[in-house]
Amino acid sequence: MRRAIPLLLVCVGIAFPYLKAYEVEPVTAKWSGYVDPELGVSQIVTCCFDSMAYVELFTGQGSGDRYYVQVLTYPGGTPIATGDTVEGRSYRWVHFDLTTTRPESIIRGRKYEFRFTRDGQTRLNYYYQHDDPYPHGKLRLGGYEQTDQDLCMRVYAKAGVDGIFGTQSVIGWKDSIPVDTLPYDPDNWGHCIAREESVGVQHDKLGYGYWAIIQPSRPDTFKWGWLDSLMELYAASDVQPSFSFSPCSKDWSMGAKKPNTDKQG
């Protein structure tokens, strides 16, 4: 079965053309809570995008009341985007289309608070994950950040590269722990790139983790053949790729003598 390209920050796997800038999924009912609907619950997110499209919050018991989301600068609390919707069903992803009122305030690297509230008297039933699955921000409750909790929600956004419609995908890399040492799903690379091209993607910043595939074992052995095949597919399309690896563990990438790359797999 052909797979859709998973687009990511911490998280991956959405329909085009949006970048999934944040995703924490519900795991168990034990990791849920209730809060006064007027006070609400928040998640701090570090910006990796240039504009926002919509956001989804996973809720437990439904009420049929109107839900609201505000996106605020953090710290500071200046509203930059809002959304609202009505949802009466239980255990659902509640969808909010966002209206951005201050687009100039969206700056990569800055933090923003996504605050959810609701009408009515019934407490808002939210879900979270333990063990800090999102290391770039925390769940906020009652004005305080929770040490090891992140809110079950999703943020969908767009990323631009010097005015170009760009995205970040994990073609060839499964985004798993432990890190893969074999390229992922090569039979569908062409399909994935064609999907990108069909919706107008011009730049694809490939995900992290590739060096374990290029240099899987011995320090003097490198496997470039799979990457050559992937680059040939990009060269035949109108999508310009780029990718990076962590240089801190590769002395030659920081200016030391470059290794012998003749030994290829």
Report on the architecture of this protein:
It is a single chain. This protein has 265 residues and is mainly β. The chain is built from three helices and 17 strands. It has helices at 189-198, 211-214, 225-235, and strands at 19-23, 32-35, 41-46, 51-59, 66-74, 79-86, 92-97, 99-100, 111-118, 124-129, 139-141, 144-145, 150-151, 153-161, 164-169, 203-206, 240-242. The strands form three sheets. Strands 1, 4, 7, 14, 15, 16 and 17 form a seven-stranded mixed sheet that branches. Helix 1 (189-198) links the parallel strand 15 (164-169) and strand 16 (203-206). It is elongated and about 60 Å long. The model is unreliable at 1-16 and 247-265 (pLDDT under 50).
How is this structure best summarized?
The protein is mainly beta. It is built from 3 helices and 17 strands.
Total strands: the figure is 17
Helix tally?
Answer: 3
| Low-pLDDT residue spans | 1-16, 247-265
Mean pLDDT: 80
| Morphology call | elongated
Question: Termini distance?
Answer: 28 Å
Strand content: 25-35%
Class based on secondary structure composition and strand pairing = mainly beta
Cα Rg = 21 Å
| Residues in helix, % | under 10%
What string, H for helix and E for strand, traces the elements in order? EEEEEEEEEEEEEEEHEHHE
Features:
seven-stranded mixed sheet, disordered C terminus, 265 residues, seven-stranded antiparallel sheet, 3 helices, 17 strands, mainly beta
